[in-house]
Description:
- By secondary structure, the protein is of the alpha+beta class.
- The longest helix has 24 residues, at 244-267.
- Helix content is 15%, strand content 40%.
- It has helices at 7-23, 244-267; strands spanning 27-32, 46-47, 56-60, 64-69, 78-81, 85-91, 100-104, 109-114, 122-128, 132-137, 148-153, 157-164, 169-175, 185-189, 194-195, 199-202, 205-207, 210-214, 217-222, 230-234, 237-238.
- The protein is built from 2 helices and 21 strands.
- The protein folds into 2 domains: 3-128, Immunoglobulin-like; 132-238, Immunoglobulin-like.
- A hairpin with a 3-residue loop joins strand 5 (78-81) and strand 6 (85-91).
Amino acid sequence: xxxxxxxxxxxxxxxxxxxxxxxxxxxxxxxxxxxxxxxxxxxxxxxxxxxxxxxxxxxxxxxxxxxxxxxxxxxxxxxxxxxxxxxxxxxxxxxxxxxxxxxxxxxxxxxxxxxxxxxxxxxxxxxxxxxxxxxxxxxxxxxxxxxxxxxxxxxxxxxxxxxxxxxxxxxxxxxxxxxxxxxxxxxxxxxxxxxxxxxxxxxxxxxxxxxxxxxxxxxxxxxxxxxxxxxxxxxxxxxxxxxxxxxxxxxxxxxxxxxxxxxxxxxx
Length: 268
């Protein structure tokens, strides 16, 4: 048989595979709003991913960011910093009003960027591989000395994680739009942050979930809906209320009591 007849068949077989691969990556828009050319503007960037205006956006390897000039002035999106200059990773050149500039990120890392014409316009793309991160979970507890960077995989963004000492729980706020039809949250929980057994609420309703372990670390897979707003994980313990400073004060106080008690006994 002539192999030329087989080539169209092979091509058709490869189409679904290619579509699946493309479906795994996402594209996010960051706009430069009207007036952003002024150093007195309230903000210089607006992310459609989570509504943030910091210019900082967190994505996964293979995702793309599209910067769009919604201002009336010309801008650039140039990788690097205003102090050290361009690092030649990406550069939009001059972007007139209404124009856009896409860039796909194939390697994990932190990619600062700025506008050459308006160097106060700075931002950063944080590219992670596999898991996103909620930084500093537990800083709002005790003296803030004990905290964790919590990893998760989700088709939306977990903007904040609030620890409730009395309720022995962590509440996760969900923002942004869904990137896929899989609304399951996979989250990695260190036992020193919160320990099980767990009860999980999605928008104040108890849900069933999967719980596995990686050593002593808990991995929860929690179902949600595309419009869910909060997820609360209730455990048996949460990050200790007393940080290192408070514990030191307690130890010193107890030591003083013991010394005073011993002296009192000697005097008797």
